[in-house]
Amino acid sequence: MLVAILAAAAALSEPAIIDAHYTVTVEADGTAPATIRVELRFTGDEDGQTGLDLPDFWGGESELWRVVHDLQVSGEDAAFAPATAPERREITHAPGAELVVRYQVVPDRSGPPRAATDDYYRPYAEPGYVHLIGHTIFAEPDRDREAGVRVDLVVPNGWALASDLQHDGLDYTALGASVIVAGDFRVETRRVSGADIRIAMRGAIDVDDTTFMNQVETVITGNLAYWEAEGEPYLVTVLPLEADEGWTSIGGTNLDDSFAMFVTTDADLETLTRILAHEHTHTWNIKRLGGALPGDPGDEAAGYWFSEGFTDFLTTRAGVRGGIWPAQTALAHWNVVLAENASSPLRDAPNAVIGEQFWQNRDAQRLPYHRGEIFAALVDHEIRTRTGGEFDLDDVIMAMRDAADEGPAPARFAATVLSVTGVDISGLVTRHIENGEPVELARDTFGPCGTVETVDEPVFDYGMTGDRNEDGQFVISAVDRDGPAWPAGFRPGMVILERLEGAVGDASVDSVLRVRSEAGTQDLRYRPATGETRRLQRIIPAEGDLAANGCAARLAGLPV
Q1: Residue 15: its pLDDT value, please?
Q2: Inside any domain, residue 67
Q3: Disulfide: which of 86, 88, 368, 473 matches 304 by Cβ 3.0-4.6 Å?
Q4: Model-level pTM?
Q5: Which is higher by pLDDT, 118 or 210?
């Protein structure tokens, strides 16, 4: 038996004209993988030809059109023209015909979500649940992104359902930036600042549902205070990932008014909270500050220094202001960011590299986060210093929020700084963002929190390369004979089982790794360094109470 759950009854206004009506139907018998059917009804163009885009590339996942099966169209004289690209269809039909497109979503891999596969944005349809992200399942006709859509969701009787499509006022942008979970999820709702906040979790992680919901409420309350905003509906979904012992993975994607989270069962509360706060900050940055840079994914990635790096900066600022974490935790986070930036092999790469390599290179993915966050601290300090404390970065961000329709946020950031504060940072943007010159923060960047110290320390060098196998274990494929690993006994083909001593990125102490080879299991000790040094900045915290001395206020963007 199926129960229909209609998109309705939220305090959001629906567009005057609905361009398309979607129905997503989930069928399940409890033994076989759930069946997902999508129906799309809309009016064809008056010229008798309407384009239809299938899911293709999103979130690093490619060829998403492979999940679309049994694609059909009906309507007066309706037919698909011969396909010229797998992600695109052209429908020929009578002028202005009422069209119905139907297809089935069939995941292109089976089994439970696993951390090692790193493909969990793609659809899941298991016997007891489904997890679907809009970008990965919805075909869309050629329409303005702001055209209205209606979505009905139909799930088996007795299944829980949670989606950010369960309200009016939807458009094609909201359709893609959505999540649908149904089945054996536990859904909890709490009223926060006048709006319904929901969590939908399945399975078990080390953080119980109530504690998790409490953290979601704390994060949202803190962000609303920083942004001077009223409460809005928000959904957080949690899909546990299977992983081998010792493998921890916590991540997810913000979807406008929801956050789809994917975590291994050993996820700790502190890391969960940081990611929750970052993703909820995306509610404002970047869409409500002017939006992303236009163009293809590479063009958009050129602005990630702002949309991701500044989001991390604002996450810390709002978090300290809202009491989500103390100043000590914020300073520890800053030192991690500074260390990551110093050790990045792309530290001085131009911004163009991010657009070119973001989806293929882990270092390129991380670069806009730490570079942008440190650049935000530089600009904040520059504004404070040049204006005698009259302005800071918050004043600029709020001005961008109030004039969001004036253009993409990264493109107009420097101009907004100038118009609001009188400080010209265009040269800093060119040097540190476009050209990639590393930022060197002033000693007093964090005021009473402590001193920014600059030191030279040994560069961490594994001395070997490899990849993870299906079990998530690192398999050595090559060892540099002139590097530190070869003399210690590391050889190609060895499997690294665990780290016993040392830490990734720390070349000041020995690393001890337990490895397996044809000869058996052994523990190998070595110093992962070659003698090369790097310039590193770190914060030496001030002694005493960091709240009483004004540090917490400084980190929160409040008067000291």
Answers
A1: 55
A2: yes
A3: 368
A4: 0.86
A5: 210
